[in-house]
Every structure is written in structure tokens, then in C-alpha cells.
Design a protein that fits this description.
Strand 5 and strand 6 form a beta hairpin. About 5% of the residues have low confidence. The chain starts with a helix and ends in a 7-residue tail after the last helix. The chain contains 13 helices and 15 strands. It is of the alpha/beta class. Strands 9-8-12-13-14-11-15 form a seven-stranded mixed beta sheet, sandwiched between helices. Adenosine-5'-diphosphate (ADP) binds next to helix 7 and helix 12.
Amino acid sequence: MPLSDLLDSLLDNPIFGAGFGLVGVGTALALARKGAQVGMIVFRRNYMITLEVPSRDKSYHWLLSWITKHARHTQHLSVETSYLAHESGRVHTQFDFHPSPGNHIIWYGTKWIRVERTREKQMVDLHTGVPWESVTFTALGRDRQIFFNILQEARELALKQEEGRTVMYTAMGGEWRPFGFPRRRRPLNSVVLESGVAERIVDDVKEFIGNPKWYTDRGIPYRRGYLLYGPPGCGKSSFITALAGELGYSICLMSLSDRSLSDDRLNHLLSVAPQQSIILLEDVDAAFVNRELLPTENPVAYQGMGRLTFSGLLNSLDGVASSEARIVFMTTNFIDRLDPALIRPGRVDLKQYVGHCTHWQLAQMFRRFYPTAPSPDGDQFASSALASLPEMSAAQVQGHFMLYKMDPAGAICNVDKING
Ligand SMILES: Nc1ncnc2c1ncn2[C@@H]1O[C@H](COP(=O)(O)OP(=O)(O)O)[C@@H](O)[C@H]1O
Ligand SMILES: [Mg+2]
């Protein structure tokens, strides 16, 4: 694209003709050159506008996608691969192409804009270990509005991709990074909990989100903690994912057994978590065992690089107060292994047992899976299932249905085959 190349060199080389090097022509030429130099500086200062966006800024990734969309003709790309292994074992990868570091020229509205993506070889972001990057937009004119428009467009573009989806974040160093692709929202009614349980939690969370004033008026930190406990495979994690979808929230998944987690880092992460997100601490029993079981007063979760202490965890949980609604969910398979200090009111405000399938749940799951089967079949399935195996997880039932995808009668006759 010759025009863009021309513009590029124009912006890069303020002194036209600097390369002539005709030394002998004398003072006149030197003066002219000086004049051109000064002129260019004045021009740059008054008739060009720039916007620098560092990579740690939230809009940085939005802008990269925006640039990719607009710099369609660029021949220089870099790739970012997302990799996600599903619980089912299915692996999902996606390549995202972004303009590579260097200069790109974009025609936007009625203007040429130069986009320069730079990557510092010497400088590394200490939090994440990735090279320091930035993009700089340069345009002719004085109207800064153009940059606001671009930022807004980039944001809308990014949010549109997330619409109807749940974004999962994981901690990378000191910040939260989206993990994989935003997942399609899981409908709440696809997770069948015991009658009334889902409603109890949903109502509580919605009431909490809707009443910031109640908390500020009383000087109570605007946070609420939830604990779901019970045997594995009964829907604790699935329910939280579905709840996030229902609320339009994202999920910040935090593993307390992460060896590089220290008190400071946990504290920092909890305080910088994205707005409108649920902090999810899975299997909290795995990180700390009940203090009474240990001789030391303040057990350390893992002796790795960082050290997460039990009191550090409590402090971080108590400290996550902000004007934003802060929702913390914890899950565990063994509530009796948890230290009472971790789940006392104020840290955990609502505890809910999510257990093996009841008759009501089994019938409900059957009807959801086989919507065309007559309704009494659900009860029949539930009764025979409980007769053959009184303690059955929803995950087992789901696995059983998958074997009889199109065959509700088969699912009932062979109910004794659940769990082999
Ligand atoms: N109550 C439920 N209703 C529907 N599906 C469920 C339910 N409980 C578990 N499942 C299914 O079983 C699998 C494991 O559930 P998960 O939520 O990870 O259990 P937990 O976190 O309690 O160990 C998921 O694929 C989920 O779809
Ligand atoms: Mg789970």
C-alpha cells in the first residue's frame, strides 16, 4: 500500500531530505534543515495526536482485537493460542491472530491512523513474566475524540463477544487473566438441586446485590460468603457456573493449593478481582486442615516459593471489602475438615449442603433428559434408582442417561447398572 508507506515514512522521519548530506552548500542549507526540524516538532506538537496504551491496561486486549479487525490487509501477524481441556476430555483450541509488533496503518473513518505495537525485549512485567508491551496510536489533527471513539468501539466489540457467555478468570501472577474462551452460559435449571435449594441461594445473592445501601448504612463490609458442601459430582461447581451466568457475572477461579500463592498475593488478587465477578475457591479443605489436627497454631498450606498461611487467608477474606458487591463462593467435599474460623458468619454467611440425589431430583432429571416420556416415568425411574443404589450422585445419573440417550425405557430397566 504505497500511500500508507509514504505516510509511515513521513511520520517516522521528520526531516525530509536529511539524507542528502550536501555538506558543501553551506549555512543556508543547514538553516533550512534546522527550520524543517523545528517545523516538524511544532507540527507534531500541534497537529498530531497520540495515545499510548500499555499492556497492563484493561483495554489493551480489546484494542488488539479492534486493530486485527481494522488492519485487515496487514501481512504481519502474531498468534495467540487458547487451549481448553473440558471435563469430558474434549480439547478445544483456538488461534487468535493479532497484528505483530511493528507499524500498521489503518484507515479509520476519514483518517489514516498509525498503530505502533512495541515489545520491550529488556523489560518484563514482574507480575506475569511476559514482555512489556504497548500500542501507540498516532493520528493527524487535534481532535482527541477519535481515540475515544476507537476505545469505545473496541470495548463494544469485546463485550459483544462475551454476551450471553460466562468468562472464567484465573490468577496469573498478580492479575486476573481470562482463561480460554468465554463459555456459553449454563442455564440454571440444567443443574437440578434438591427442591428449593437453588432458589434459596439465588434469592440470597440477588437480595445481596440489590441492597448495597443496607450495608453502607450500617458500616458493614459489602461482601457475602457462601459455602457449598457435599459429596463430589453432585453439582456444586456446576451450580456456581450456572449462577454466574444467571447474574451475568464472571468467575474468578482461585486455587488455594497453588504453590506460588502467598498471603500478599492472595490479598492483592482478591482486591483487584474484576468487577461483577464471583470469587470461587474450590476444595478449600485441600489447602488447610483443621487447626486442631495440627500442632502448630498457624499452619502453612504449602511450603513453596510463596507461603499461604491460614491467618493470611482469613485476613484476605475479611479484607475484600469494596463498594462493589463482593461474592465469595467456597466448595468442599468435607465440611468437617474445615476450621470453624473459616466458615464463621461474616466469612461464610450461607452454608448449603448439596448432596446425593433425592427422589424429587431423580424424577426431575429424568423429565429434563427425556422431555417426551410420560411424566410418571420420572417417578418410576427415581423409585427404582433409589431402591438399587440409595446414594447416587447427579454425575452418575447423567452418565447413565448418556448410555440410553434415546431410550427412556432402557434407562429405567437398566437402572441397577448405575455404578456398574
Ligand atoms: N445436580 C445436578 N444436575 C445436573 N447435572 C449435574 C448435577 N450435579 C452434577 N452434574 C453433572 O455432573 C458433573 C460434575 O458435577 P460438578 O458440578 O463438578 O460436581 P461437584 O462440584 O459437586 O463435585 C457435571 O458435568 C455436571 O453437569
Ligand atoms: Mg466441584
